[in-house]
Amino acid sequence: xxxxxxxxxxxxxxxxxxxxxxxxxxxxxxxxxxxxxxxxxxxxxxxxxxxxxxxxxxxxxxxxxxxxxxxxxxxxxxxxxxxxxxxxxxxxxxxxxxxxxxxxxxxxxxxxxxxxxxxxxxxxxxxxxxxxxxxxxxxxxxxxxxxxxxxxxxxxxxxxxxxxxxxxxxxxxxxxxxxxxxxxxxxxxxxxxxxxxxxxxxxxxxxxxxxxxxxxxxxxxxxxxxxxxxxxxxxxxxxxxxxxxxx
Length: 247
Fold this sequence. Notes:
Distance between the termini: 23 Å
Strand order of the largest sheet: 1-2-16-15-14
Order of helices and strands: EEHHEEEHEEEEEEEEEEE
Structural class: mainly beta
Number of strands: 16
Number of helices: 3
Helix content: 10-25%
């Protein structure tokens, strides 16, 4: 049975159920059940990051430790931490166009109390920050092309050419953090080194949440979702195709 995910809401299946919006979006997701597969890690050094994270009972302290590790590994000379008395202006970013922008956690996200550096995707000129809230967390992406920012559910997972990227997160029990999936599209040519992006789809799930994503081809990815309550834990897998409606 196919499921159609539109620009803000999804539709019909026992675990992914909402109603279609009244107006048709620029893109939608055609979703069909799939067999399980190996999804791989978010980062090539995921084992090291997981090891650092396991040393802390507090998620924010773990994120700060991972930040220190990544800063040492990537040495991003365009990033400078700014410590002001207000405690709000935290990062200064030198952009590829020669300008400089300063990131205030409260501006990029009203829920954000701190931004910790997580990764720089050099091929896409895209900086990934983890956004710490009073309870829960999200992510903030910053383009080094022009300083454009976006609050996202999770870190980006890129399609083979970089035309698309997906962000996702699962928080079905506490519901402090976003629970769902987003799709972003590049407005420029990644081959040129530019990655100015826009969000085309955002879907918040309820009783299930996405835990893994793997691209199959340029416009199709596979997604694992889990249902934690009621027990037992259940895993489901879906093949997700990004499509444009025919008019």
